[in-house]
């Protein structure tokens, strides 16, 4: 073998490394294209919010507003008949309270179904999961009758309490509880802890990723809810943000610049919340799917 000859093993290693780099490059390209497809509506929403009304409703969309203006934001935030900041506050209060109720009701129910042995546990869990297949529209009128009987119509409890007993929350947290090692609870029981102490001091600290994930999903579901608030919130001051933004359109005219400005305002709190909770969300989703 001469000095310029390359050993076969080295050639194969070089070829394998080149193929791996090519696969990574193709994967990154595919992910970049998919990300661009998902981000393009958000970017166009942001761009449209800086357009004037004629340009925002033009049939030939433009990605660069000319000229860029803040008129839509001034109109949205300054309209006397459309209190956007009040709607924003209502949405924050309703979504936060709804999220807390979902966590309070789903966590102990999921723990009982995952860790406690009792008669009928499987039947109860099956019934809970079965409710996930019931279309939400079927419950619209029954929920309205209950809310009306409780005199909650046109008040925030009407959009906070219904749906707080989350079947998905119970299912999601149960899957997470099943991934936790039982030895931790057995050790705490040997040390004299009762069931409640084990749940609060041992299990809940380990469940923070799943709780953060479920909390974010519950917050988003309530924050983005549009149809139900339209049914139960009547006065302009009681509306949440998604329902209130419908005031910017009517049968004959749609103010796209105002709608997009309102949508940007509605998106900012959710995006900030996701940025803060992203690490726990990823961990919670990955761990909840390990064991069925």
Main beta sheet strand tally, sense and closure: none
Instruction: Provide a count of the helices.
Output: 14
Percent in strands: under 5%
* Tally of structural domains: 2
Task: Outline the structure in words.
By secondary structure, the protein is mostly helical. The chain has 2 domains: 8-49; 81-288, MetI-like fold (Orthogonal Bundle). It is 69% helix and 0% strand. The chain is flat and about 70 Å long. The relative contact order is 0.13. The mean pLDDT is 84.
Q: What key phrases describe this protein's structure?
A:
292 residues, mainly alpha, MetI-like fold, 0% strand
Describe the structure in brief.
It is built from 14 helices and no strands. It is an all-alpha fold and 292 residues long.
Helix and strand topology:
Layout: H1 8-49, H2 53-56, H3 71-78, H4 84-115, H5 121-130, H6 140-149, H7 157-160, H8 167-177, H9 182-190, H10 195-206, H11 208-223, H12 227-232, H13 241-245, H14 256-288
Helix pairs in contact: 1-14, 3-14, 4-8, 4-11, 8-11, 9-10, 11-14
